[in-house]
Amino acid sequence: MVRVAIAGAAGRMGRALIEAFGLDSDGSKVTVAKVLSDDPSLGVDSGLLAMGVENRIFTVSDISEYVGDFDVLVDFTTPAATLEHIALCQKHSKAMVIGTTGLNDEQIEKIQDAGRSIPIVFSPNMSIGVNLCFSLLEAATKVLGSEYDIEIFEAHHRHKKDSPSGTAIKMGQVVAETLGRDFEEVAIYDRKGIGDERDRGAIGFATVRAGDIVGDHTVTFAGRGERIEITHKASSRMTFANGAVRAATWIVSKKTGIYSMRDILNSTSEG
Question: N or C: which end of the chain has fewer CB within 10 A?
Answer without folding.
Answer: C
